[in-house]
């Protein structure tokens, strides 16, 4: 597919990996994705930054690119911003997973009447991962409507990738405090903190230290773009090493303002070693999402 694909492949081949697993990629209905891109183009209030979309391609081209990079498994992160959307999005995601076998069947949720019913339906239909976006959805993870859902997902052992940090702009219910209250009630919930909890890195690392099922994904963290407005504190680098078995590669593809390979190089320059990189870019996700394929 070209020089960039070659660069990505060289990265994981050097590590002796069969490829990489990316737990934070976005695929969604075209009309929804176009609106997301328009929001980024307008530097909306939840971003407030110039944010060019590097991979603004049709769906098939985006899939071809991920595969050319050697991404063995990925997700279709999607999320509602109002009631009445989640069930429809889940139907689309189930169809997408059925026609895209290397995509982990993804689902989402929103605090609304019927949420327990459609989350249970998604689980029974084979959903492997959920997405919860507290910033865009503007809801409290501790909303009573969601309590049975968190219990169901904890019992099923299904990870929930959650945008709960206050970056790039704070939301009404973002930050570590609400998530701390949630985990106190559901300590076995497999919560994956998106973006390493940016900018509250230290606080979310502390939650991962306190709760063995909490993980963090690397999405956009450590890149030149994010370091420009929300740098990862150098003093916390040792904690990244200590939690090396619970950090997962995520990228935000296609909605990133730089080449895909830059996320990988940003991890490499942390200088935490090849074993750490192998775990983050493949091993940890392979253990969390086991299958008969590599």
Main β-sheet: number of strands, strand sense, barrel status?
Answer: 6 strands, parallel
Percent of residues in β-strands: 5-15%
Range of helix content: 40-55%
Distance between the termini: 22 Å
Q: Characterize the quaternary organization of these chains.
A: single chain
Spatial sequence of strands, sheet with the most strands: 4-5-6-7-8-9
Which stretches are low in confidence, meaning pLDDT under 50 for 5 or more residues running? none
Q: Please count the beta strands (DSSP E, at least 2 residues each).
A: 9
Please characterize this protein's 3D structure:
It is a single chain. By secondary structure, this protein is of the alpha/beta class. Helix content is 43%, strand content 10%. The protein contains 13 helices and nine strands. A six-stranded parallel sheet has the order 4-5-6-7-8-9. A three-stranded parallel sheet has the order 1-2-3. Strand 4, helix 5 and strand 5 form a beta-alpha-beta unit. Helix 1 runs parallel beside helix 12, helix 4 runs parallel beside helix 5 and helix 5 packs parallel to helix 7. The longest helix has 15 residues. It is globular, with a radius of gyration of 18 Å. The relative contact order is 0.15. The mean pLDDT is 95. It comes from Streptomyces anulatus (Streptomyces chrysomallus). Keywords: Lyase. This is Amidohydrolase.
């Amino acid at each position: 597919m070209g020089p960039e694909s070659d660069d990505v492949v060289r990265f994981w081949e050097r590590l002796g990996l069969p490829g990489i697993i990316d737990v934070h990629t976005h695929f969604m209905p075209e009309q929804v994705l176009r609106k997301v891109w328009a929001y980024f183009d307008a530097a909306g209030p939840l971003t407030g930054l110039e944010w060019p979309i590097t991979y603004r391609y049709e769906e098939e081209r985006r899939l071809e690119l991920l595969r050319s990079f050697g991404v063995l498994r990925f997700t279709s992160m999607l999320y509602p911003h109002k009631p009445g959307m989640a069930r429809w999005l889940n139907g689309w995601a189930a169809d997408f997973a059925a026609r895209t076998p290397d995509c982990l069947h993804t689902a989402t949720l929103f605090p609304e009447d019927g949420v327990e019913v459609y989350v249970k339906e998604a689980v029974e239909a084979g959903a492997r991962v959920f997405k919860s976006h507290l910033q865009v959805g503007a809801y409290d993870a501790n909303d009573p409507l969601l309590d049975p859902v968190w219990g169901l997902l904890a019992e099923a052992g299904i990870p929930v990738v959650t945008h709960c940090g206050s970056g790039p702009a704070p939301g009404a219910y973002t930050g570590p405090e609400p998530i701390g209250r949630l985990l106190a009630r559901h300590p076995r919930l497999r919560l994956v903190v998106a973006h390493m909890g940016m900018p509250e890195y230290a606080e979310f690392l502390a939650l991962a230290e306190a709760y063995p099922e909490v993980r963090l994904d690397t999405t956009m963290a450590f890149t030149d773009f994010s370091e420009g407005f929300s740098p990862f504190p150098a003093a916390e680098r040792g904690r990244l090493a200590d939690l090396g078995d619970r950090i997962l590669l995520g990228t935000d593809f296609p909605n990133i303002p730089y080449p895909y390979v830059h996320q990988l190089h940003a991890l490499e320059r942390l200088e935490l070693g090849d074993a750490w990189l192998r775990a983050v870019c493949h091993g940890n996700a392979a253990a969390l999402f086991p299958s008969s394929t590599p």
